[in-house]
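Feature request, filed as a ticket because there's no other form

It would be nice if the structure record came with a short human-readable summary line next to the tokens. Right now we just get the raw output. Example of a typical job, pasted below so the devs can see what we mean:
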Amino acid sequence: MHEQPEQAPAAPPVQLVTVSFTGLGIRAQADGNTGREAWQRIRARHPRVALAAGAYALLPAVLAAASVVRLL
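Raw output as currently delivered:
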């Protein structure tokens, strides 16, 4: 008979996700984890939210760069 390999248990679903935008950057929190661990969980469960947060944070930088280039 064929034995099936043991699979790692699935990660529990994210229960609480917080993404905060500040003047200094973006802060993410997922299930009590912050920083890189939180972003990994958010990307795994909500890839569109992670993409939208990155695009939203990048927008002011692009606008500021465009303004500086136009003034030169």
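Something like this underneath would help us a lot:
The CA atoms of residues 2 and 8 lie 19 Å apart.
The beta strands are 17-22, 25-30, 33-34.
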